[in-house]
Amino acid sequence: MKIRYGGDYNPEQWPEEVWRRDYELFDAARIDTVTVGVFVWALTNPAEGVYDFTVLDRVVERAAAEGRSICLATGTGAHPPWLARAYPEVTRTDFEGRRHRFGQRHNSCPSSPAFQRLSAELARRVGRRYAGNPAVVAWHVGNEYGGACYCDRCGVAFRTWLRHKYTTLDALNAAWYTTFWSHRFTDWEEIEPPSALTEHWRGPDHTAFQGITLDYLRFMSDAMLANFRAEKAALRESGDLPVTTNFMGMYRPIDYHRWAADLDFVSWDNYPPDDTSQARMALAHDLMRGLKGGQPFWLMEQTPSYTASRDVNPLKRPGLLRLWSWQAVAHGADAVLYFQLRASRGACEKYHGAVIGHGDRADTRVFREVAELGAELARLGDATLGARTPARVALLFDWDSWWALELSDGPSRLVRYLDVVLSYHHALWDAGVDLDVVPVTADLTGYEVVVAPALHMVKGDLATRLEAVARRGGSVLSTFLSGRVDENDLAFPGDVPGPLAPLMGIRVDEWDARAADVVNPVRLGTDGLVVGSRLLFEIVVPDGAEVIGTYEADFYADTPAVTRHAFGAGHGWYVATGLDQTGVSWVVRQVLDRHGLTGPYADLADVETTVRVTPAGDHVRFLLNHRADPVEVTVVTGGTDLLTGAGVDSGQTVKLDRYGVLVLREAAAP
Fold first, then answer.
1. Which candidate in 66, 144, 369, 467 is catalytic?
2. Which uninterrupted H or E stretch holds 157?
3. Does residue 301 lie in a domain region?
């Protein structure tokens, strides 16, 4: 066994004589796993009640004969033209109320009975036909679920979902605060999906009733999950092969925490917006790994060169493909796969990068890099399979807080949830900390530090569990706009930050939102480091907390901007403003240093370090140089370089080349 290496393969787009060349090149690149059948609905089910697996049979038979493992898709990632013609209601109605016609993909209404019935039946037939093939190692349901529908059928389904959640209209009216603007509902049929025709007037994020829109986001996430569950259940009739679908990292429309339990393993598609997104990618990897309690995931898609989905599609610089692939492994990937293995000749992805380009060559730089990485992964073998991250730091990530904060009118629409989370994650990443990114429902007992940026919504017993972290000696760090609303997006009665106030030892009396170019300096610590802060400035009154940083300007100069509150044997930290990255990193280092958690290579800027612990107990250290120039590293703990087999001594200086990688099985402590 080894890390799976390969990717999306669409041989149905090519005559069979091309397939022979494909497998010759797959051999050269050490490609061992192919994902097939993702978009074959129109081929395998060309008319209602008609199924033709001739082409898919040949695809699967050829892959198996060539010794490849197969991740086999149900083919339901895009519905065929005949389905839309036979059942016009299968296409979506958009936010503006327009019923779409056939076209694109992601155009299936999740509430359409025809889509529900026929997609599940196709999955059932795929399962029956191929479950016994030993080359098939996993099922791939759908593809990159996303979008939303606002049709009448979704309205009916939404009302059913609401009845299940609230039981009574009185409970719903209370949750949605419908005494405002004469919105009190007296019949379930009065409830409409929130759209440009109802509660929204300036786009999806501007709603008169945040509670209604928040529930529709939850409903739509659950509606698509129901589609996934139906296909998974159909596959399960033929056996227990693992089932997945490809997530998209930090993707706002779907709450992946609500989906995680239904996937047998997580897989996701990594398409960073530029070539300086290493910290952002690390957060996304950690988020995906955290969906199932630290279980390794598959990197289902990445481009070997460039995408074709943006206005500008930069090429990966030499070495970045290798570096970013190893970054995925460092954060928990047990598979490194591409989209796509052979480039399409037509349609919107003909210029999307591929392992095999239109020139059909093996002597391109991109192909050589793919082949060299394949050889490295072969040398690594099973050394990291099943390995987990030994994190003592947790970062909370919450789709409900994301949605609620950005739906809110006030205090500032310039504050974006991801920007805040990325800033605090970047500080942890820079400090070389092994961390888990977990939902707010996660068990926090194993963590010494919990970071909860922009924890806008506090649900259930979360405040009590955070207090328990501090009470036993841990540290909890939260920020402005935290502790504002409950699970219904209703403001907590009493002082901000609501149920977090006892832990933080403060109250927020007022807040000041300003344009992006307004900077209020903040002075931090006894050394008087001055940093900038922007967008939102909460005016804090300590209620037992110690002042760690103060504003320098405006009428609230000399009032607290950063506080620390002794709580039990630990602390609650609160950052009341949008500090710049220098300020965020300073605060995070203060928290980590108290627990001795700052990483051993933290002083090396843009050198990322993570640890994975194998089932056998081996510690594998990854050192990743994200610089465009070489760097020398003094090794803290020696061991064996798993990519070369060479021994590395403690205290030895090693050179990491531009975008270089060291994978070190650390020697056991004496």
1. 144
2. helix 152-166
3. no
Give Cα 68 distance to the centre of its chain.
28
Strands 246-247 vs 653-656: parallel, antiparallel or unpaired = unpaired
Same domain, 617 and 582: no
Q: Binding-site residues, please?
A: 105, 109, 143, 149, 151, 154
Residue 180, domain extent: 152-214
Residue 634 lies in a domain: yes
DSSP three-state, residue 5: strand
Binding-site residues from annotation for Zn(2+)? 109, 149, 151, 154
pLDDT tens digits, residue range 246-289? 999 999 999 999 999 999 999 999 999 888 999 999 999 999 99
Nearest to 343 by CA among 11, 102, 52: 11
Which tokens hold the place of 258? 């609500």
Q: In 3D, which of 245, 228, 252, 220 has the Cα closest to residue 92?
A: 220
654, part of any domain: yes
- Could you write out the three-class secondary structure of 575-593? ECEEECHHHHHHHHHHHHH
Q: What are phi and psi of 150, to 5 degrees?
A: -130, 30
**Nearest-angstrom CA–CA distance, 4 and 328:** 12
Supply the pLDDT for residue 158: 98
User: Tell me, what's the pLDDT at 310?
Assistant: 87
586-to-420, 426, 525, 589, 639 alpha-carbon distances in Å: 15, 12, 9, 5, 32
Please report the pLDDT score of residue 527 as a whole number: 87
DSSP-derived 3-state class of residue 29: helix
Domain final residue pick, 214, 244, 267: 214
Exposed e or buried b for every residue in 69-97, given b needs 16+ CB within 10 A? bbbbbbbbbbbbebbbeebebbbbbbbee
Number of domain units in the chain? 3
Looking at the fold, whether 421 and 464 belong to one and the same domain comes out as yes
Q: Are residues 567 and 646 in the same domain?
A: no
Torsions phi, psi for 611 (to 5 deg)? -125, 140
Contact 266, 244 (CB under 8 A): yes
Question: At residue 628, does pLDDT exceed 60?
Answer: yes
For residues 385 and 642, give the distance between their C-alpha atoms in angstroms, rounded to a whole number.
13
Q: Is 66 a catalytic residue?
A: no
Which residues have CB under 8 Å from 24's CB, separation 6+? Answer: none
Separation between Cα atoms, residue 389 and residue 428, nearest integer Å: 15
Judge if 411 and 472 occupy the same domain: yes
Q: How far is it, in rounded angstroms, from Cα 318 to Cα 313?
A: 16
Q: Tell me the pLDDT band of 532, cut-offs 50, 70 and 90.
A: very high
Q: Does residue 180 belong to any structural domain of this protein?
A: yes
Residues 542 and 426 in one domain: yes
Model confidence over 76-101: pLDDT tens digits?
Answer: 999 999 999 999 999 999 999 999 99
54 CB burial (10 A radius; 0-12, 13-18, 19+): exposed
Beta strand extents in 543-660 (DSSP E only): 546-551, 560-567, 570-575, 577-579, 607-613, 619-625, 631-634, 639-641, 647-648, 653-656
In angstroms, the Cα distances linking 469 to 284, 389, 463 are: 25, 20, 10
User: Which of 199, 301, 467, 538 is labelled catalytic?
Assistant: 301
Q: Are residues 517 and 617 in the same domain?
A: no
Residues 443 and 589 in one domain: yes
Is 301 known to be catalytic? yes
| Average pLDDT of the chain to the nearest whole number | 97
Binding site per annotation, positions for substrate: 105, 143
Q: How far apart are the first and last CA of the chain?
A: 30
* Of the candidates 68, 74, 69, the residue with the CA atom closest to the CA atom of residue 56: 74
Is residue 601 within 8 Å of 633, Cβ to Cβ?
Answer: yes
Which residues on neighbouring strands pair with residue 338, listed in sequence order?
7
Looking at 214, 237, 256, which one is the last position of a domain? 214
